[in-house]
Design a protein that fits this description.
This protein is mainly alpha-helical and 295 residues long. 73% of the residues lie in helices and 3% in strands. Strand 1 and strand 2 (11-14) form a beta hairpin. Helix 3 (100-143) runs antiparallel to helix 6 (210-250), helix 4 (149-173) packs antiparallel against helix 5 and helix 6 (210-250) runs antiparallel to helix 7. The N and C termini lie far apart (72 Å).
Length: 295
Amino acid sequence: MYQKKIHDGTVKNSVGALPGVQCPVGLLNEKGGVMAISMEGAGWGVSIALWRLNVGFAASPSSIEQIFLRWMHIVAGFLWLGFLYFFVLAATPALKALNPATRAMVFPEIASRGLWWLRWSALVGWLAGFRYFMILAKTDAVNAGRPHAWVAWIGIWLACWLAAFAIEMALLRAGGPLGNSWVAGALVIFVMAAVSWLVVSLLAQPGAGNRTLCISVGGGLGTILFLNVWGIAWRCQKRLIGWTRASSEQGTLMPPEAANLARLVAVTMQINFWLSFPMIFFMAASAHFPFLSGG
């Protein structure tokens, strides 16, 4: 409780202040409550706190580049995986529940806008991650006394994952029993697991650390996700968007290959969805769960 003198000379008791604590002039409102501390006072408080923390930033260009790459990789990854999960878990089921006429009007807008963010965030995220992986591989090679070995490591890594993508493309386009989405998807997951083991086996050389080996798997799976977006999903979806928009606006019929392209996109997005979980695990394990090392 505190006392406040009113303009007519009377004294009024009010509650709202702590016993024994005097509130400075200007902090009390007309109803006896305590007003918020001014922004100026808060700013001074934050400035003093930062000044006393002895904050220092890395001065080397390499450190600045690495934190920028990691920040850009994380932000782009949030957008990339966020839109992937949105399409798989929300947009696709919602579109299936609509009647054909409504779906034909809604699909082009959702797909074109969402895929713009999906594919460009995938590109930015992959480029930032690849550059960061190069830095880690080079650091391990230098520490191992083989400063040029990182070039061969990157070459082996890239060749393995490009081969994995080529096998995936062949499986998804194959007919017969492999035309079943579940069979093709299961085989693709098996191929990715086998390639992950192969990459770690080839790169687990003296000097290769947990970060490099974990990212060789996590980044490899991210490469597959990136190639799936640009090499399969976007190439098919842009045709489906154009055909669907023409069907809605002009009444033209969808071409016969539209159903196969839609199936290919659906399987590819499902594969990306399931591969994203081991990808995230290996990315996190690179810094927080050391369990791999070179022989």
